[in-house]
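Renewal narrative, Specific Aim 1. Our central claim is that a sequence can be written position by position from structural information alone. The example that follows is taken directly from our test logs and has not been curated for this report. It begins with the C-alpha cells describing the chain, in the order in which they were read.
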C-alpha cells in the first residue's frame, strides 16, 4: 500500500509577520531586467497579502505570458522577501497584463529611462527620430536624407547623425566632402574641452547639421570595429558633438538589432523609430525584428 502524500508546510516564522507596506518596500527593490525599473513602480504588483502564519502571497502581472524574465523576477522576489524574519513562505501568483496595462507600463518605463539617461549634447527640446531597417540595402539612408532635407526646407534646423559606422553613405548622398573639426566651445565665458563641430548645409529656409564617420575617414577605408566599438562611437557623437540649436535630430541607424540600437535607447530614450522595409519577405521579417527590439527598449515605432 502506497504511503500517503504529504504537503510541504512553511517554515516556522522567526518573528512577527511583515506588514503589507513592508513587503511593498522590499518589492520596490526588485528590478525588471528588461524594463530597467522596479516592479512596484511599473505597476506589476496589483496585490500583496500577508497571512498570520507568515505566508506572503504576491500577485505579479507580466507584460507577456512567456516573459523570459519570469524566472529571474521569481528568484529575486522570493530571496528578498524571505529575508524578513517573520516570513515563512512566499507564494507568487502570475498574471498577464492586458493591452492598456502594457501601454501604461511602457510609459512608466520610458519615463524612468529618461530620468536616468546620461547627458548628451542633444537639446532636450529636440525631436529625435531614428531611421532603421534591420536589413541593409532597403533605402534607409535615402529616406533619412530626404526626410531631413524636407523638414529643413520648412525653416527648421535638423541634425543628421550617420550612425551606420560601417556602411556610411550620408556624406555621398548629400554631396558633402569636408572633414569635421574639433574646437573648444565657450560656455558662460569659459572655454570647455574641444567638441566636434558638424558640417552644415543650408536647405531652403533651414539648415542641416551633419555628422558621419565618413567625415573622419576616406570612403574607401574599411572599418573593422566590433559592436562595442560601434556603440562607443555613436555615444561619442551624441556626447562630444556641439550640436547647438536643433529642432530635429535624424539618426541613420546601422543594419541589425544589436549593441548600437540598445545604446541609443539608453542615451536617448525619447527617440521615436521609423522602420524602413521593402515588399521582400526577408526584409519584412528583419524589419519586424527591429520593431520588436525597439518596443522592448521602450522606443515608439
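The sequence written for that structure reads:
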Amino acid at each position: 500500500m502506497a504511503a500517503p502524500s504529504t504537503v510541504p508546510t512553511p517554515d516556522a516564522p522567526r518573528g512577527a509577520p511583515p506588514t503589507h507596506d513592508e513587503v511593498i518596500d522590499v518589492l520596490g527593490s526588485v528590478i525588471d531586467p528588461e524594463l530597467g525599473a522596479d516592479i512596484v513602480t511599473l505597476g506589476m504588483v496589483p496585490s500583496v497579502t500577508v497571512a498570520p502564519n507568515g505566508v506572503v502571497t504576491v500577485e505579479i502581472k507580466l507584460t507577456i505570458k512567456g516573459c523570459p524574465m519570469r524566472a529571474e523576477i521569481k528568484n529575486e522576489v522570493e530571496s528578498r522577501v524571505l529575508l524578513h524574519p517573520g516570513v515563512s513562505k512566499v507564494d507568487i501568483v502570475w498574471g498577464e497584463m492586458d493591452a492598456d496595462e502594457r501601454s501604461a507600463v511602457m510609459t512608466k518605463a520610458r519615463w524612468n529611462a529618461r530620468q536616468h539617461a546620461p547627458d548628451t549634447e542633444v537639446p532636450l527640446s529636440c525631436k529625435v527620430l531614428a531611421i532603421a531597417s534591420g536589413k541593409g540595402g532597403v533605402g534607409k539612408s535615402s529616406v533619412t536624407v530626404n526626410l531631413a532635407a524636407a523638414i529643413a526646407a520648412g525653416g527648421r534646423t535638423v541634425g543628421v547623425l550617420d550612425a551606420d559606422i560601417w556602411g556610411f553613405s550620408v556624406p555621398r548622398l548629400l554631396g558633402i566632402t569636408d572633414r569635421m573639426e574639433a574646437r573648444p566651445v565657450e560656455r558662460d565665458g569659459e572655454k570647455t574641452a574641444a567638441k566636434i563641430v558638424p558640417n552644415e548645409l543650408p536647405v531652403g529656409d533651414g539648415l542641416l547639421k551633419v555628422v558621419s564617420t565618413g567625415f573622419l575617414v576616406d570612403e574607401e577605408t574599411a572599418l573593422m570595429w566590433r559592436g562595442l566599438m560601434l556603440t562607443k562611437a555613436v555615444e561619442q557623437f551624441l556626447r562630444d558633438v556641439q550640436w547647438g540649436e536643433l529642432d530635429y535630430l535624424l539618426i541613420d541607424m546601422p543594419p541589425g538589432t544589436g549593441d548600437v540600437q540598445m545604446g541609443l535607447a539608453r542615451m536617448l530614450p525619447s527617440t521615436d523609430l521609423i522602420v524602413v522595409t521593402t515588399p521582400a519577405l526577408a526584409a519584412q521579417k528583419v524589419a519586424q525584428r527591429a520593431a520588436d527590439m525597439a518596443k522592448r527598449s521602450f522606443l515608439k515605432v
